[in-house]
Amino acid sequence: MASGTLRELYPAVEAFDTGYLKVSDLHEIYYEQSGKKDGKPVIYLHGGPGGGISENDRRYFDPNVYRTVLMDQRGAGKSKPAAELKDNTTWDLVRDIEKLREHLKIEKWVVFGGSWGSTLSLVYAETHPDRVKALVLRGIFMLRRSELLWYYQEGANHIFPDTWEQFEEPIPEVERFDMMSAYHRRLTGTDPEVQLKCAQRWSAWEMATSRLIVDHDLLKRAETDAWALQFARIEVHYFVHGGFLKSETQILDNLDKIRHIPCTIVQGRYDVVCPARTAWALHKKWPETELRIISDAGHSAKEVGIVSALVEATDKYKAL
To answer: What's the pTM?
Structure first.
């Protein structure tokens, strides 16, 4: 794709509404709205789980058309309590999205999500297909065991052996046959120093492998104590429980519920975190989707080719 044809993010925009929604006796989720107050609703579902939202996430959507809703999922970002694992499952998040939709008096919306956000988008759509106008998905992740083992046990470490060495260092050699479980024990343990070290190493592994060319500014994020603890604790909690899905093929098994919904999939060819095989499997089972494989990109939504394709996709669904 020639550089002159690449789309860029829309200009920065301020939120016109922010707030907290109490979704359980324990959890309050932070949400914000930006763009056009009476515009076409879209919800942005962040990755991780535990990654949280940022101001830049508003910029994939035309602010003159879209009423853009962002939310921090349970335990993530500004949601309270931070890094909380109790009552924090995929099904809790699906219910939270519905509670937020009802709170904002939105009938239907476009759903946008990448990485774990693609998982949550698909599960939400399969649970509430009548509430989804279109799906824009990036870096498909279906939480199948083979996907988790590729990234956290045997696969991605062959491409990033230097970074993997740092990832496995906090774990005794005798426990390295199951890295997710070993990290889970430490990230949910009682030693705050061990918890923080493991949170930073877990987060650094993902930050170092997310882009085709390593982004050192992104690596610095893993050094932020509060964010690293949210990101690592919530991710490992979901991953050791298989995302709380009923089966590892749940998403593929329920595609008939959403086959009628327009969907664009954007996938980096060299995505090491969520390899293209998963996007391909989804597209093969759901051929009505538009699949765009970006030839010079990894996993990150910030890579220029992926940004361009995502903005084109949201523009495509403006008329819905």
So the answer is: 0.97
